[in-house]
């Protein structure tokens, strides 16, 4: 699927869509275009019928969608921001370490936070190396990216709760974004919590869209 240059909404059937959990409907809106995936043909038909007259800016508004669709659960919305090389504001410190994505210390960091935090950050799915900050021997912050279609580098970042608000997420994410740019990829940042959005803005990311996942009652 692709966003149409002339704008508008594209709906497709995809049981294995990366836009949402399995069995859910995924919605991504960027600028004046949107793409929607549904797990079955019947759900895709329902979405097309019920959403075809809705303004594009409302497609990631869960309250507006609940008024027209039989929704059981919602994830999001999450902001989608992107980083142009010319806008990049790199951050220190210089002691960010590079480790393999499957490194045991990264697994330990993920195990130290709640399931919601681990799922939100996406570090378990990165395809790049992990860029980590240590306190003593322990990793307290990490970032990396998963390569998506269209030359996108989907950034994930996580900091231990007791180490937050110290600039560590910004340092780790800065290293991940720099690696993506060096590989001619476009860094993408998806975030629901405001602290995560602040980190993205500090690095120069610009919000251009939003993403929402819904599970229909069918």
Describe the structure.
With 218 residues, the protein is an alpha+beta fold. It is built from six helices and ten strands; from the N terminus they run E-E-E-H-H-E-E-H-H-E-E-E-H-E-H-E. It has helices at 41-51, 62-66, 104-111, 115-121, 168-182, 194-203; strands at residues 8-13, 25-30, 33-38, 71-82, 97-99, 130-135, 138-148, 152-159, 186-191, 206-216. Strands 1-3-2-10-4-9-8-7-6-5 form a ten-stranded mixed beta sheet, sandwiched between helices. A hairpin with a 2-residue loop joins strand 6 and strand 7. It starts with 7 loop residues before the first strand and ends with a strand. The model has no long low-confidence stretch (mean pLDDT 91).
